[in-house]
Amino acid sequence: MRSCSEVRECLLVTHDMSYRLRIQAPSPESFEPLRCALAKRLPGVKRMAATFVLRDVLLEHNPT
User: Fold this and answer.
1) CA quadruple 25, 39, 14, 4: dihedral positive or negative?
2) Are 50 and 31 in contact (CB under 8 A)?
3) Contact at 8 Å (CB) between 23 and 30?
4) Given CA atoms 62, 23, 8, 45 in this order, what sign does their dihedral have?
5) pLDDT block averages, 10 residues each, the chain of length 64
6) Which residues, listed in sequence order, are joined to residue 22 by a DSSP beta bridge?
7) Residues 20 and 7: beta-carbon distance below 8 Å
8) Number of independent structural domains in the chain
9) 22 assigned to some structural domain
10) Distance CA 41, CA 56 (A)
11) Share in percent of the chain as helix, strand, coil (round to 5)
């Protein structure tokens, strides 16, 4: 994961997924090729799910 500059965070989590990655992609269209490339690098991955951030609510209400 360290070699992929788009991966901003890699967390070991509980629940139905083992890891949670925070990825920054320049556009929604650029995410799919990135997802495919990551899947090839992660042997043993059986399932991937994605969600997209629409906006950061905390930053919206607490500008610095």
Assistant:
1) negative
2) yes
3) no
4) positive
5) 80 79 87 87 80 84 67
6) 9
7) no
8) 1
9) yes
10) 29
11) 30, 15, 55
Q: What is the pTM of this model?
A: 0.65
Domain around 47:
7-61
Is residue 2 included in any domain, yes or no?
A: no
How far apart CA 6 and CA 9 sit, in angstroms, is: 9
Cβ atoms of 48 and 40 closer than 8 Å: no
Residue 52 is assigned to a structural domain of this protein: yes
Task: Decide if 1 is inside a domain.
Answer: no
Q: Dig out the tokens for 33 from the structure.
A: 């090729």
Q: Which two tokens stand for residue 43?
A: 């042997």
